[in-house]
C-alpha cells in the first residue's frame, strides 16, 4: 500500500518529465501566437457546477466523478475536465465586461473513475482553450486552427481532423424528435444503456460503442442532413475558413462528443497510431453552457486535449527529442579549503546560469572524476592546494581531453565564450 500509487495514476519524472516540459513549452508558444492567455482554476469545485456544466446524462457525471464531502458537509468534486471551471471563473471574475472575445488556455490535471488501460487513466492531464464571446464561424475556425498548428508544432503526424455540426436551437429540436422516433422503432436492437438514454439524450446513442447499437444506427437519420439554414451556413463558413488556411478535414456525421453541452460545430483530432483511445483532442461550440451556468447567453467554442495521449502520439511519430544533460562544469576538490573554494565558485557560476556540479558524497578525486563522466559533464577541473595557491586551475574538455589554464575569476567569461562557440551550446 505505502509504496504503491492508487490505480490509474502515475508518477512523472526523468525523461518523461523532460518530454512533458518540451510539450508545454511548445504549446505556450503556440497560444501566445494566437493571443490566448493562461488561466488556472481550482482542482476541486462545487459538485453542482459539473452536474450542470458537464451534464446529468453524461458518463462523466453518472459514473466517473471523484466526489467527496468536506468537513462542513459540502459536496465537492475533483474536476473531471477543464471547461466548467473556466466558465465559472469567466462569470465570477466578470471577464465578459472586458473587450471580447476572451481567449483563455489551461493546463490541468483531470480526474475520472474509469477502467484504466492504455491512454485511459484516473488522473490524467488536459491542455485546453476556450474562446468566449463570439458566435461567428471565424471563432470556430480559429480554435480548430490553433489545435491543428499545435499538433504540427509538436511533430504529430497521422492525425485526422474530423468535423461535424450538431445544429442548435430549432433544427436540433426537430432532429431530436426525428431521432427519437427512429429509436422507438428500433428499440429492440439497442443495448440497455441506450434504451435508458434515448429519451433523455437521444444524440448519445449515435456515440454508443456496442456493435449491435452501431448496426442499428447505420440507418439512423443524421443531424448533418437536417440542419436549419443558419446552422448550415455557419458550418459551411467554418469549413470555408479551414480550406482557406489549407487545413485538411473530413466531415464525420457520427461525431457527437461525450458532453451534453455542444452546439453547432464539433470536432476531433484522431490518431491512427495509438490504438482504441485514439482521440487526442476534441472540442466544439457550446453556445448554451454559459447560460446554463448562470450567466447571460454567451457564445463559446473550445477544445480539450489529453496530454498523455499527445505524448503517446508524439512518441509514435518519433517527435520526442531529449536534451543532453548539459553539465557545463564539474568542479572536483581535495581537502576542506578546496571544498570551500569549489562551493564559492559554483555558487557564483550558477548565479550566471551555468550548470555546475560538485561532489556531495565525500568521494576521492578519482571517484569524483568518474562521477563527472557519469553526469556527462562537458568540462571538469580539480581544485587542490596548488590551484588554491595559484588562483587558477586546468579546465579539461571531457570530450577531447584538451586542457587550458583558467584563472578562477575568469571562469564565468571562459564558460560563456566556450558555450557560445559550441554546436547546440546551452
Ligand atoms: P474518450 O472518448 O476517449 O473517453 P472523452 O470524450 O471522454 O474521450 P473529453 O471529455 O473530450 O474525452 O476529454 C478531452 C481529451 O482528454 C480526450 O480527447 C482525451 O485525449 C483525453 N482523455 C479523456 N479521458 C481520459 C482518460 N481517462 N485518460 C487519459 N486521457 C483522457
Ligand atoms: Mg470518456
TrEMBL record:
The keyword Cell division does not apply. CDD domains: HisRS-like_core, HisRS_anticodon. Residues 1-325 form the Aminoacyl-transfer RNA synthetases class-II family profile domain. It is found in: Cytoplasm. It holds the Pfam family tRNA-synt_His. PROSITE patterns: AA_TRNA_LIGASE_II. GO terms for cellular component: cytoplasm. Keywords: Aminoacyl-tRNA synthetase, ATP-binding, Cytoplasm, Ligase, Nucleotide-binding, Protein biosynthesis. GO terms for biological process: histidyl-tRNA aminoacylation. Homodimer. This is Histidine--tRNA ligase. It comes from Anaerotalea alkaliphila. The gene is hisS.
Amino acid at each position: 500500500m505505502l509504496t504503491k500509487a492508487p490505480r490509474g495514476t502515475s508518477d512523472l519524472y526523468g525523461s518523461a518529465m523532460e518530454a512533458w516540459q518540451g510539450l508545454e513549452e511548445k504549446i505556450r508558444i503556440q497560444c501566445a501566437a494566437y493571443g490566448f492567455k493562461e488561466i488556472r482554476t481550482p482542482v476541486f469545485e462545487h459538485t453542482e457546477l459539473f452536474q450542470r456544466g458537464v451534464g446529468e446524462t453524461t458518463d462523466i457525471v453518472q459514473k466517473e466523478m471523484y466526489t467527496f464531502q468536506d468537513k462542513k458537509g459540502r459536496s465537492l468534486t475533483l474536476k473531471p475536465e477543464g471547461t466548467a471551471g473556466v466558465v465559472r471563473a469567466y462569470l465570477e471574475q466578470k471577464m465578459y465586461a472586458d473587450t471580447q472575445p476572451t481567449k483563455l488556455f489551461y493546463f490541468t490535471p483531470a480526474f475520472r473513475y474509469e477502467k484504466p488501460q492504455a491512454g485511459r487513466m484516473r488522473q490524467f492531464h488536459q491542455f485546453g482553450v476556450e474562446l468566449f464571446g463570439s458566435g461567428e464561424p471565424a471563432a470556430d475556425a480559429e480554435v480548430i486552427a490553433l489545435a491543428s498548428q499545435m499538433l504540427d508544432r509538436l511533430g504529430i503526424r497521422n492525425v485526422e481532423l474530423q468535423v461535424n455540426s450538431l445544429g442548435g436551437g430549432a433544427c436540433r429540436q426537430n432532429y431530436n424528435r426525428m431521432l427519437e422516433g427512429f429509436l422507438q422503432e428500433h428499440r429492440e436492437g439497442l443495448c440497455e444503456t441506450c434504451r435508458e438514454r434515448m429519451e433523455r439524450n437521444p444524440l448519445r446513442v449515435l456515440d454508443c460503442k456496442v456493435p449491435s447499437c452501431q448496426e442499428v444506427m447505420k440507418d439512423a437519420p443524421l443531424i448533418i442532413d437536417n440542419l436549419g439554414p443558419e446552422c448550415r451556413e455557419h458550418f459551411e463558413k467554418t469549413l470555408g475558413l479551414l480550406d482557406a488556411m489549407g487545413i485538411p478535414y473530413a466531415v464525420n456525421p457520427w461525431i457527437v462528443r461525450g458532453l451534453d453541452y455542444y452546439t453547432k460545430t464539433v470536432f476531433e483530432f484522431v490518431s491512427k497510431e495509438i490504438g482504441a483511445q485514439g482521440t487526442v483532442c476534441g472540442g466544439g461550440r457550446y453556445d448554451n453552457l454559459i447560460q446554463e451556468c448562470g450567466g447571460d447567453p454567451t457564445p463559446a467554442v473550445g477544445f480539450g486535449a489529453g496530454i498523455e495521449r499527445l505524448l503517446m502520439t508524439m512518441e509514435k511519430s518519433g517527435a520526442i527529442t531529449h536534451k543532453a544533460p548539459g553539465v557545463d562544469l564539474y568542479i572536483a576538490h581535495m581537502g576542506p579549503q578546496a571544498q570551500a573554494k569549489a562551493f564559492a565558485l559554483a555558487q557564483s557560476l550558477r548565479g550566471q546560469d551555468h550548470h555546475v556540479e560538485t561532489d556531495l558524497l565525500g568521494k576521492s578525486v578519482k571517484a569524483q572524476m568518474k562521477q563527472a563522466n557519469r553526469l556527462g559533464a562537458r568540462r571538469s577541473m580539480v581544485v587542490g592546494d596548488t590551484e588554491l595557491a595559484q588562483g587558477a586551475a586546468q579546465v579539461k574538455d571531457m570530450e577531447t581531453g584538451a586542457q587550458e589554464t583558467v584563472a578562477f575569476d575568469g571562469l564565468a567569461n571562459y564558460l560563456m565564450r566556450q558555450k557560445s562557440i559550441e554546436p547546440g551550446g546551452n
